[in-house]
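#dry-run=false #mode=assembly
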Amino acid sequence: MPKPPAIPAAAWWLARRCVGWCLAALSACLAIALPALAADDQIVVIDRAVSVQHIVEPGPVRLPDDWAVTRPRFEGSVWYRTGFDRPTGVDSHELMALYIERICSNAEVYLNGHRIFSGGRMGEPVTRNCHYPQLITLPAALLQERGNTLDVHLQGHALTRVASRQRAGGLSAIKVGPQALLADAYDDRLFWNVTAVQFANVALAVLGCVMVGMGWMNRREAYLGYFGWLCLAWGLLSARVWWRDMPWDTGVMEFLFCTGFAPLVALAVQFLLSYAGLRSRWIENALAAQWVLLPATLLLAGPGRLFLMASIWYAVLAAEVVAATGLHLVTTWRNKRQDFWAMAGLLSAILALLCVQLAMEYDAIPNPGVPLLQLAAPLLFIGMAVRLLQVFARALRAAEDGRENLEGRVHEITAEIERNFAQLAELRVEQVTEKERKRIAADLHDDLGAKLLTIVHTSESERISTLAREALEEMRLSVRGLTGKPMRLADALADWRAETVSRLGQANIEADWRGPTEEIEQLLPARGFVQTTRILREAVSNIIKHSGASHCKVRCAISDRQFGLTVQDNGKGIPMELDGKLDRGHGMSSMKNRAKQMQGQCLVESGPGYGTVIRLTVPL
Amino acid sequence: MTNILLLEDLPEIRSWLKVLVKGVFPDSQIHEAARVHDALELVSAVKFNLALCDLGLPDGSGVDVVAALRESQPECQSVVVTIHDDDDHLFPALQAGAFGYLLKEQARELIAEQLKRMSAGEPPLSPSIARRVISHFAAQTRPQERPQNMPHVALTDRENEVLLRVAKGYTLPEIGVQLNLSRHTIADYVKQIYRKLNVSSRAEAALEAQRLGLFRRS
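#status=ok
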């Protein structure tokens, strides 16, 4: 598989940068946009009030009044009374409004004794408006030039009874000013606190479903499934930011949300481990036990110590995530170096975010009022998903390449099998042909051969028995030509020599055979061997029967293209016929015909008293 | 008293051969058989000095009779009498223990002459048969093809020399002249070659049978 080009690495660097820039820009926007309002002389900022808490004596408070600091154990409703004059810089026809940045959990507002706003249910389950800014239009009829009385009836929760500092009761400073002016600040705040988180939730839900689906389809890549469920769980937990009217009491809901962190962290740890290719039964069991232990400890501690227990658990869970991250990065560094930097960047960003959130919980740094974790984490999750998809796509491409490779191999092998099959079929045809030839040869021997043989040995006439013997020889040679394979020319020469020399020897004719002395590698087709054998046999028969010679010379000459046989005797030669042709009775024409069948040549030179020379030339 | 087995399925040829053999060996008793089965029965009953066997018979091949004779009567001389002159047919018979071969269609005098020579211990050897013998022993001497327990039958240098010259087309008398050996010595070499061919072929066959599991190793 080719190495992926360097572009993804650069893209990652860019993506990581983008996340950083987004966070910086976010903080900058908030820093610039919000305090700008305070500088305007059209807006009255109310930062003092008289509060009545239950039965306790009324007393002055400064706004914002953060219950986590001022009354951490108080649970219930507090009345705030304050007064204001209509801002002088505003035209009298201008529509006026009241902007409250934070009301937690819910409030009702009275102007000069008339209720002008209600955020929802004031009794349990109390509507949760903690992340919602409020913009309340002031009815012109009720608004006086001077000495307006403003009462805010706030229903809130004690810090000890909620799982997060952000949901402890509290009232921010109140701003009075032209509605158009305050609406901008309100819109801004609403977008970042609620709408952006909702967008992120929708995105995470979609992403989670896709990942879960992919994990479902690819069981071997379990980390895809873990990541999908992690996204979904995160989305569900983040819903508490914008989900106002819950079905149960605040205590129950806080308990449930806090409990939800156990599976969330379990999924995160499992994802990190399985993506690094690790698996441990022990860790899996511990995570499952934690899922039980966490709610159990919360129940044991009771609703009054929810914040304390939650803070301890947050630390434990964060430590688990840090440990899993460390393990993951170490393993990745060892096994999959190319994955390390992308994962290290993403994970450290998430860890940094977690640390910031924890610090806020412990009140180590001031709360910016924006759900930072809920906003930034989805971006990092999406980054992680992109990374996973990239890895997945790469694996898919590798698999595809492998498959193509395999297909190629299959094609090759199929072609080879077909080739082999064709060869086998050819071989089979050859075998069948060979078998048939052998059968014909056997039949000829058994039937024709036996009959000819009987004629040879039972005929009264010597002529007939000679003819039958010749016919038998012919038949055998034919059969040999029919079944024979090409033979080495050297072997053929040896056979011819042995036959010729022994026949001439038996006839008391001196034989002088000289062949080539060097090694002969050429092959002679079976037909060529048979025809040459016949020609040579005929020539020797003629010498023995008719020539009356006492001496016979045979010479062989072999070149690359042909071989030649010269048979010369010192006999009385072949008598001429009247028409000037050589005696047909000596079988000259059949010798010539046989030579012609081999594309060869047979020349006979003879004269009375000069002996006979037969020159045979056969191409190879 | 000489016992001669005559195995031939064609009646005319058999009687013709009988006359011929009677002419060569007037004192002999000739036992005739037309089938392998009959011949094998005779072999188990009678002790033969000479056996003339046809190859293609109605109920099998004369090679089986040659092999049976070699097994039970090693001193009997088997000669193949056949219409086939090609070594594909002759070589298995020689391996089975035949001591020579006669071609049936040859003239009476020629066959009688060859028969006399063979019984005098001068078997024929053609170039093509010689080549088959050479390649047979060449395959045996290749160590990777010869298992440990196989008796090693090797030709002597002189036997090899004779074989090589026959394979090149020289006749036995010519070789005798070339090597300055008597006609009898050359004939002895050829007999020895036939004997060794038979021994090594039998060892080979036994080994093959053992490999196929026909016999249990004792």
